[in-house]
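Human: Note token order:
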Amino acid sequence: MPAPLLTPYLPEYSEKDGQDGQDGFRTLFTGSISAVRGGSCPYLQPDEAWPRCKTCQHHLVPYLQINASSPGTPEEFRERIATLIPASEGARSATLFQIFVCAVETNDGTCFEGWVNCVEEGESWLVRAVQVDADANGIEESPAREAVRVALEEEGILLPERFVVRWTPGNPETEHEAADGYDEFGEGFYAAHEPVEGLKLLGYPIRGKYYNSSGSTDGFCAEGNSGSHFEWQCLVQLGTREEENSLYTTGNIYLNQCALHPNVLDAVCSGDW
């Protein structure tokens, strides 16, 4: 039998994409859009320094910020990240799911890409869920943060800012044909449910002949008392090699979540290099 069909959620972008001068995060904070891809305005906690790469110590760049409280964010995604949301005291107006990556160029593509491919040691990303104060504390920039933003802009490694108004349910997907244990169920069935490329939430990721994981246990989750297990679900497909994205020159990169231990996340690169 084929793998169960899963519904992916595809980004529906705003035609403005920040061109009207709006601050990307301020727009995200209102809930009128679901996410900001790229840009230079990440939400940081009050007095928090701009995150750095644990591999090369360079400042990370914001890749994706999703307002889980926005009506444009799928309920299924909100349920999947529920265990990642920290407990809080006082009033909160929004929950943000943030992904930062290291976009510094190396001999292996970007630092982030080299780390996911197990070429670089360390940790070249930051993934977290944060709760935003009701008084929007943390939105205002400090001189130190502004200096980092200017430096990243001068380096030219910030990603273009795009606004995701909502995530639209896509065609139900089956497991990619390159996945281990793929159970072929006829060409017609696969053609009708082949996983889509590019940025998406949930669904099945694009795979390839090779599979590299940022985890230290050969791609397995070692959480719990039942021993290592391979029960991963795609939480976010960050990008695929075929699309125009400077971060992905080697393969397809996505964020996996353990189905048994949803607090465990893993970055994966898979392709045919």
Observations:
- Residues 143-155 form the longest helix (13 residues).
